[in-house]
Amino acid sequence: MTLRDRTYRTEAIVLRRKDIGEADRILTLLTPERGKVRVVAKGIRKPRSRKAGHLELFTRTNLLIATGRDLGIVTQAQLADAHRPIREDLTRGAYAAYAVELMDKFTPEQQDSHELYALLRAALGWFSEGGDVAIAARFYELRLLALAGFQPELRRCVVNGASIVAEDQFFSVAQGGVVCATCGKGQPGLTPLSTEALKYLRYFQSQPYGRVVGLKLSGNVLGEMEYVIQRYITYLLEKQLKSVEFLKLIRREAQPQ
After folding, report:
1. Distance of alpha carbon 114 from alpha carbon 34, whole angstroms
2. If we measure between CA atoms, which residue out of 173, 177, 174, 149 comes closest to residue 161?
3. Whole-angstrom Cα distance, residue 201 to residue 194?
4. CATH 2.40.50.140 residue ranges in the chain?
5. Residue 232 and residue 54: Cα distance in Å, rounded?
6. What's the rounded Cα separation, in Å, for the pair 169 and 184?
7. 146: buried, middle or exposed (CB in 10 Å: 19+, 13-18, 0-12)?
8. What are 190-231's pLDDT values in tens digits?
């Protein structure tokens, strides 16, 4: 086996990290070609480590990785984007942490993930820009669900298959979509869904980010969209993400007293 066979180059985004030993760190990375991989960055916690600033959470980095028996070993790292605005703003950082944790949960290890990688790369850019981070988060959730094979049905009733008309509906997390007013009336476990919130959920699902980023949505509509999507995600994952509670805490503290 040649040296070239034992190494590979890849762009990667740091999803998670865990300290081991006195100076090493295990990193969970998302890569375009190999999906989610775990590698060791040896000596990264030493004061003079040249890799430290290139492998922080949320960074996008070009790497040279040597394949090991269990984990790869980072031999070179060159920072591509530090996403500084995310690090300098607590709210943006909390949204980025949510996006990264969500991607981590929905991405299998060592499988081709070009579309998922492109989505996360774009999302970290959105959270670094000056747009509405809540709108960016809702768009990201819907795109991720679609790519992961869990796109919610928003145009036909998941009970009888009929086209949804312009009236308040329900959403079923168990069936993964909208339930019409007739089928949902009196049924337990459904989430009410207003006509306006459904309209924007459909728009977010069908349009590119450039079309939704400039929208002006009320807090009530955005809140309803968030509640429905996150209930669905929690059902799929069978637990609530840690970053969700942290994000809620940050937003509560940011509200004027």
Report:
1. 9
2. 177
3. 11
4. 3-82
5. 35
6. 8
7. middle
8. 999 999 999 999 999 999 999 999 999 999 999 999 999 999
Q: Where in the chain is the domain with CATH 1.20.1440.120?
A: 85-254
Residue ranges of the chain with pLDDT lower than 50? 1-3
The CATH code belonging to domain 85-254 is 1.20.1440.120
Global pTM reads 0.92
DSSP state, 52?
A: G
For residue 5, the model assigns a pLDDT of 60
Give CA–CA dist 150/209, Å, rounded: 19
Query: What DSSP designation does 58 have?
Result: T
Residues 6+ apart with CB under 8 A from 204: 138, 139, 142, 212, 225
Dihedral, CA of residue 144, residue 80, residue 21 and residue 17, to nearest 10:
-20
Coil, strand or helix: which one is 14?
A: strand
CB–CB of 14/58 below 8 Å? yes
CATH code for residues 3-82? 2.40.50.140
